[in-house]
Amino acid sequence: MKLITRHTRAPRSGAFIRCPYCQNVSLVRHFSWSALACDHCSESVPKDRWGYCDRSEVNPVDILRLGSPVTLRDGDEWASWIPAGDCVISLYGTGGKERSRNRMEDRIQISLEVALRQVQTHLEYGWKMDVRGKGVI
Ligand SMILES: [Zn+2]
């Protein structure tokens, strides 16, 4: 895990930072702050004490719960969950890897609670995070 410096920038889908006190992960959209209170333990943590987490180091359920999109894949099949206000857009499809044609098969709006359960279930069935992470469409 890297520490955050003045050169650290957040990607558009947000950056994940780990609290040095409680080890919980938070999502930030930018780094123009010098200290931030942890959402979980309320400690005020200076910027250079937070750890910067790569998306691959964060549980996909937590990524979605924190408000960032998640894509899971099982071979040719993929599923994306994109937070949209109070609900989540759930997308399913096939392809999109290397040169295979990307096809979206369904797109529905569901509650965050249902989306979190779906991500958990897919993980239990062995689906893996697509580290591009922003949805494959
Ligand atoms: Zn904390």
Tell me about this structure:
By secondary structure, the chain is mainly beta. The protein folds into 2 domains: 2-57, no CATH class; 62-129. The protein is 14% helix and 37% strand. The chain is built from 2 helices and 11 strands; from the N terminus they run ββββββαββββαβ. It has helices at residues 60-65, 112-124, and strands spanning 2-3, 15-18, 25-28, 35-37, 44-46, 51-53, 70-74, 77-84, 87-94, 103-111, 128-129. Strands 10-9-8-7-11 form a 5-stranded antiparallel sheet. A 4-stranded antiparallel sheet has the order 1-6-2-3, with no helix packed on it. β4 and β5 form a beta hairpin. It is elongated, with a radius of gyration of 16 Å. Bound molecules: zinc ion (ZN). Residues 19, 21-22, 24, 38, 40-41, 43 line the site of zinc ion. Zinc ion (ZN) binds next to loops.
Shape label: elongated
The structure class reads mainly beta
- Number of spatially distinct domains: 2
Q: Largest sheet, order of strands side by side?
A: 10-9-8-7-11
SSE pattern = EEEEEEHEEEEHE
- Rg from alpha-carbon coordinates: 16 Å
Which small compounds were modeled alongside the protein?
Answer: zinc ion
Strand content: 35-45%
Low-confidence region ranges? 133-137
